[in-house]
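Case study 2.
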Amino acid sequence: MQAVADTISRVAESGVDVLILGETGTGKELVARSVHGLGRRADGPFVPIDCGAIPENLLESELFGYEQGAFTGADRQRRGLLETANGGTFFLDEIGDLPLVLQAKLLRVLQERKLRRVGGNMEVAVDVRIVAATSLDLDQMVKERTFREDLFYRINVVRIDLPPLRERGDDLGLLAEHFTLRCSREMERRVPAITPAAYSLMRRYHWPGNIRELQNVIRRAIALSDSDKISPDDLPISLVAAANAGRGNQARGFFKIREEYLSRFEREYFSSLLRLHSGNVKESAREAQLPRGTFYRILKSHLMDPADFRS
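Prediction:
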């Protein structure tokens, strides 16, 4: 990540186009905003677009704009996002999802720095810096001819590869502490500590959603925790199961592991019922479709007091 930061600082002033590669949730847009903010165009607009989030039939007009009467409903001229970014930076997120027909049109804009609105005949000059990003393997897509080779080489002037969270070592602890402090302030909660047991599980987890997933896990833990510590009980069951899957589970055996997960499920399920019904055991047992005596017995096994849930 120090190498990434060094590349950002060196490339920002140059004004060249940048390609950012990395898995979902690694912070590609944050890198793009840093490139913009540290460069000569910092006072200009930063205009992002997610190429995979806009329907293909609307994407062309979003990018290039349109003239009045270009299609049904085009009752006035409209500038596209590329024109909106004039003098600044245009961020193409998930450029790998851009349809081939629009890849050709985008390539011409990058080469000529001119565009033609949908339904128009005049070319409009644009002065933009292009920063593109994707979580897809563009090299493989070029080989499969699902991404234009000429466009790939045009945007791949400077390439920044973002490593996934699982490869960033002790950054996990630094980021977890950062998100704990920030989320606690946003939620107006006391800042909790992360217990060694919880941190150990987080270190063994694969983090497929990367930094975005870590932030959501910390936010969830702070919302659920009733103490000044984030413990394994505050982490998602799926995270705990995945973290334990490859280490130590075999030694404890199937029945021991199942007992632990069932116990955690019972605590979460009964806590949610009691919160929903403000500690009313009768209504909580009715929703759970359990006899009240059974409901009380399970509560007692987990040292849970209905009074703690009454507003």
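The chain has two domains: 2-163, 166-309.
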